[in-house]
Specification:
This protein is mostly beta strands. The chain has a domain of 104 residues. It is elongated and about 105 Å long.
Length: 155
Amino acid sequence: MKKIILISTLFILGLSACTNAEITPTETIVIEPTIVVLEETPAPPAYLPLSSDSHLTKAKVMIDSASLAFTADEPAQVDLFLSGHLPTPCHELRVHIPEPDEEGNIMIEAYSLTEPDILCEQVLRKFNETIALGTYPTGSYLVWVNGGVVGNFDF
């Protein structure tokens, strides 16, 4: 009896495989092409102050040298090269670049920040940083870093 049921089942499956069943779609799906454009926003330089810096401890940096250079781009841009030392390896350099005052003085402040209450090796950490000052309107400018004159330029 089991053989007859098995043979009957196989026969029915074989016949159903041979049928020419036509499937008609009931709805149409339209796929529209999509263009994805990824624009990467460049990260701001690490030396710029952040809003999240308020909880960090501020300290001085030791500036060994500071100089100005101009790019060959049109319009020319001003770069400030700073080298010096941070108080510990745990400190991060920050550079505040304000707008020029009425006399054309650009009073830049370089300082360091660290997490409060962090234990850190008491060793100086050297830094060399190129600070992009950008372009300025026509005029004469005098650049200061932490109260000392670095140089001047005219646009």
